[in-house]
Specification:
This protein is about 15% helix and about 20% strand. It is α+β, with helices and mostly antiparallel strands. The strands form 4 sheets. It has an 8-stranded mixed sheet with strand order 1-17-16-15-12-9-11-10. Strands 3-2-4-5-8 form a 5-stranded mixed sheet, covered by helices on one side. A two-stranded antiparallel ribbon has the order 6-7. Helix 1 (about 5-10) runs parallel beside helix 6 (about 345-355) and helix 5 (about 255-275) crosses helix 6 (about 345-355).
Length: about 375
């Protein structure tokens, strides 16, 4: 590809500029429209993006295994199920039990079993290879249900630390229910940094045959009485500083092709991001840059590799050679691709991550959302 780095970095600053040809589909503030195929995200245009914008990367040396075979015939666009919030749970692993909600003692299991459902729409739940904390007092215990972990909420780009299975109901009611969703207009107010504190539930106890409510304040109970409940969970909340996230399905227990493709794609995506100074590894939280995470099954493994690109709606210049820097902001778009191969990675970085365009929509685009224009694929 002959386009210079400086040219597409400059174009990356226009992160969510809508195509003029689709302005008639821009939704009202409170209404989202199901976008027909070809409308949701613009396709690269050789007249604008250079004659080589549709070519595969010529310098790519990574290849899938010889027997890597996928479905190339089925129509992709518009077949995914819509979602409101996407929650990534840090596990430090790249593969999981077949259904991650079956992971005993995990936050994923608690989401299914706690009996509290989000009030603002469907929650997409993904285990991820985000690192788990190792400096917590409970991190060495043999009981996984007491170990805190970290979750990332999208599209709000919110990181919440110190989450345990027991605190999942609080997480849902205090954060997920208050978070912007995929169909929240970008002008809506973000969630508060810290919600009002929650007091632990009162403890019922028996007194002379009658049921009364015991105080949860500290007290000196006789040894025969149960101890008071622990205090409500305290979360640490902070914004994710990246301008974009690339999510790769890596769950080989669901399909071996996902386990094969994800690490290969990460290597190639990392190569192109590093050349732009945009790569951020799992422990790098400098402002700006792009994170690459492995996640559990998202559906459609027969179309491997599945790649989800969340792009922040707010990108500002940090004054460092014109490189984009993500400040406080939410995801304005998610572009969900499939049938991605290593030779596609250069175009995905240059055009999809930085500009919100799709190189091969007819073959690869499954769907997504654009909150700036009020469009979804479902």
């Amino acid at each position: 590809m002959s386009s210079t780095i400086s040219s597409f970095i400059r174009r990356g600053a226009a992160f969510l500029t809508p195509s003029a040809s689709t302005s008639d589909l821009t939704a009202t503030k409170a209404t989202f429209t199901t976008a027909p195929e070809g409308i949701l995200f613009p396709k690269v245009d050789p007249a604008i993006d250079g004659e080589d914008c549709e070519r595969d990367c010529e310098s790519c040396t990574i290849r899938y295994p010889p027997k890597f075979s996928i479905d190339e015939e089925e129509h992709l666009y518009g077949q995914i199920k819509g979602w409101a919030t996407h929650m990534l749970v840090a596990t430090g692993k790249t593969d999981w039990v077949r259904d991650v909600e079956d992971e005993k003692g995990s936050v994923m299991e608690a989401v299914r079993e706690c009996g509290v459902k989000p009030s603002n729409g469907r929650l997409m739940l993904s285990a991820s290879n985000m690192p788990v904390p190792h400096n917590h007092p409970d991190s060495t215990t043999s009981d996984p249900s007491t170990q805190p972990t970290t979750v990332l909420l999208l599209p709000s780009f919110t990181i919440i630390e110190n989450v345990t299975p027991a605190s999942v109901p609080q997480l849902i009611t205090q954060y997920i229910d208050r978070s912007p969703t995929t169909t929240t207009p970008l002008s809506a107010a973000p969630i508060p940094a810290q919600p009002d504190s929650i007091q632990p539930a009162a403890v019922p106890e028996q007194t002379n045959g009658a049921l009364t409510i015991a105080s949860t304040s500290p007290r000196s109970d006789p040894p025969t009485l149960p101890p008071p409940l622990p205090a409500a969970q305290t979360f640490t909340v902070k914004p994710c500083p990246h301008i974009a996230l690339i999510l790769l399905c890596s769950q080989k227990t669901r399909d071996a092709r996902c386990g094969q493709s994800a690490p290969l794609l990460r290597r190639e995506l990392e190569r192109h991001l590093r050349s732009l100074g945009l790569y951020r590894d799992l422990h790098d939280f400098r402002p700006g840059g792009v994170g690459i995470y492995f996640i559990s099954h998202v559906g459609g493994h027969k179309f491997s590799a599945n790649v989800m690109v969340y792009r922040k709606a707010v990108v500002e210049d940090d004054g460092d050679q014109g490189k984009p820097s993500g400040k406080k902001g939410e995801a304005g778009q998610c572009i969900w691709l499939a049938r991605v191969r290593p030779e596609d990675c250069e175009g995905i970085v240059k055009f999809t991550v930085l500009q919100g365009k799709v190189v091969k929509p007819e073959r690869q685009l499954r769907g997504g959302f654009d909150r700036a224009r009020g469009l979804v694929s479902w």
